[in-house]
Design a protein that fits this description.
Structural class of chain B: alpha+beta
Structural class of chain A: alpha/beta
CATH class of the largest domain in chain B: Alpha Beta
Helix content of chain A: 25-40%
Oligomer: heterodimer
Number of strands of chain B: 8
Shape of chain B: elongated
Strand content of chain B: 25-35%
CATH architecture of the largest domain in chain B: 3-Layer(aba) Sandwich
CATH topology of the largest domain in chain B: Protein Transport Mog1p, Chain A
CATH superfamily of the largest domain in chain B: PknH-like extracellular domain
CATH superfamily of chain A: LarA, N-terminal domain
Chain lengths: 335, 165
């Protein structure tokens, strides 16, 4: 175990080395690859997490989250890891948003067990319940996850952009000309994305970056060209780029074809969480996971299906600079 | 009265008759395809029906909307159901512009493990879903859980919807 002086030194060095790709600098704490400028992504699996039936086991989800965060940050103690995440993310004493995804309905939405596990660890790390805001497009998208709408600031808050409304002024980057949810612009100091891994009939893959379509007033305006460059452009809008600091991707279950809606005949259980700060590296990792599943069942690649997720490469290009999609520059940890 | 005047009078009378008929009992009633609670054994309708016009469909299915729009969708109505108080399901009724559009959506992504159904004009069933077309109406019913009774229960609900179309 390193002492505090060594820890701080490592953290500071890592933060400088990782630069814009990992704004939290979490992965740099003990990551020996940090010096090479690689983006770290952790894929944590528990084959037994869904063994009990339709819903994943809550205790095992919490354990899986702890393992993922411990591997990512290097902290064995989850509460300490979460304190660091909150501090580095600028969330201390402020509102931290958990952006879920309930678009696909009850069958394929962010799992309640994961949302509650993250909320539990945040509270143990000193975040007041009222400073945790679970949010999505609207009440329906939250309720399908099993959540209850609550605006009482003495408890964990949970409501959608249908309650907060959208900014009057348009935000623009490239092809994206949208109005952002006031939850993102006014309420949250920091956002942790909790997307669920899905096939998408247009973009190919929907996960970390595509989850941001749920923070704008007219997501349909960003679907042209198989969502390219819409996804990348949206994530480049400063408030989206700066506030969405971390992804804890839900791959406990997934649909590998026929998405983004629920296709029970294409349901699959990767039993995994995909964690990282670099949203591009996270999406690239998730894409490869879906490709492997499709190959396993004899389905065509996304390229052959005419919907390769080109927005991932766009997000990594010089103009966007949101992260890396080169496997050589991703430090993938599968645990 | 010459024959020309008689023809004019007959034409005006015919138009008046059509107008009266249209404003009274001859008007076609809008079909409600959603069975009420208890109409199909053990099935309860657990939500209000929501309807989305083509231009608003993204609010319900976001990116999926494009394929329906390109196939000529007019509107989608949806409602939640519950079987024996436990098994949850959703019924989506898509009104397409024509039969070919409904057929196109039905067959897109269909795989060899689909069981062909004699329901409506054409239909298929998987373990947790039933999809069928009747005319230009496409119905998709999806259960959120797989149980031994799911296929039979879904089929019963699908037959109930089909009977109302």
């Amino acid at each position: 175990m390193e002492n505090r002086r060594e820890f701080l030194k490592t953290t500071a060095a890592g933060a400088l080395l990782l630069g814009a790709q990992s704004k939290l600098g979490l992965a740099a704490m003990i990551d020996q690859h940090a010096g090479s400028g690689k983006s770290k992504v952790v894929v944590a699996r528990d084959p037994g997490v869904n063994a009990g039936g339709a819903k994943p086991d809550e205790k095992r989800v919490l354990d899986l989250l702890d393992r993922a965060i411990a591997s990512y940050t290097g902290h064995d103690h989850p509460v300490e890891a979460w304190k660091h995440i909150v501090r580095q993310g600028g969330g201390e004493g402020k509102t931290i948003g958990l952006k879920t995804n309930g678009l696909g309905g009850k069958g394929i939405c962010t799992h309640l067990a994961l949302i509650m596990a993250v909320a539990e660890r945040l509270q143990q790390a000193g975040v007041k319940p009222g400073n945790i805001l679970v949010w999505d497009r609207n009440a329906r998208d939250l309720e399908v996850c099993g959540l209850t709408i609550n605006t009482d600031p003495s408890r964990i808050r949970c409501y959608g952009s249908d309650v907060s409304g959208f900014e009057d002024e348009q935000s623009t980057f490239g092809s994206a000309h949208i109005k952002l949810s006031k939850i993102l612009t006014r309420e949250c100091a920091m956002v942790i994305g909790l997307p669920i891994l899905k096939d998408h009939s247009m973009s190919g893959v929907t996960f970390a970056m595509k989850n941001m379509y749920g923070v704008v007033d007219r997501p349909q305006s960003l679907h042209g060209g198989n969502c390219n460059p819409g996804v990348a452009d949206l994530n480049c809008i400063p408030v989206v780029r700066e506030k969405v600091r971390f992804t804890i991707g839900d791959a406990l279950s997934s649909v590998y074809d026929g998405g983004p809606g629920f296709r029970p005949e294409r349901l699959w259980y990767p039993n995994a969480l995909i964690v990282g700060e670099d949203r591009v590296a996270v999406d690239h990792t998730a894409w490869q996971m879906l490709e492997r599943k499709r190959a396993e069942v004899g389905m065509p690649t996304f390229e052959a299906a005419g919907r390769a997720p080109r927005y991932i490469a766009t997000a990594a290009d010089h103009e966007h600079g949101l992260g890396v999609n080169d496997p050589q520059r991703i430090h993938l940890m599968e645990i | 009265m010459n024959s020309r005047s008689i023809k004019w009078m007959l034409a005006v009378a015919a138009i008046a008759l059509v107008a009266v008929a249209a404003s009274t009992g001859c008007k076609k009633t809008k079909v409600d395809p959603f069975p009420a609670s208890g109409a199909i054994a053990d099935w309860q309708k657990t939500s209000d029906t929501r309807t989305f016009a083509a231009k608003d469909l993204w609010q319900y299915i976001d990116g999926d909307a494009e394929q329906y729009i390109s196939a000529g969708i007019v509107s989608t109505s949806t409602s939640d159901y519950k079987y024996q108080g436990q098994l949850e399901a959703v019924v989506d009724v898509h009104t397409m512009g024509d039969v070919s559009g409904a057929h196109k959506i039905l067959t897109t992504g269909q795989t060899s493990d689909a069981k062909v159904l004699q329901l409506g004009d054409e239909g298929v069933q998987y373990g947790q879903s039933v999809t069928f077309r009747k005319g230009k109406t496409l119905v998709r019913i999806v259960a959120y859980e797989s149980t031994p009774t799911t296929p039979q229960a879904l089929l019963a609900l699908a037959q109930g919807v089909q009977a109302k179309l």
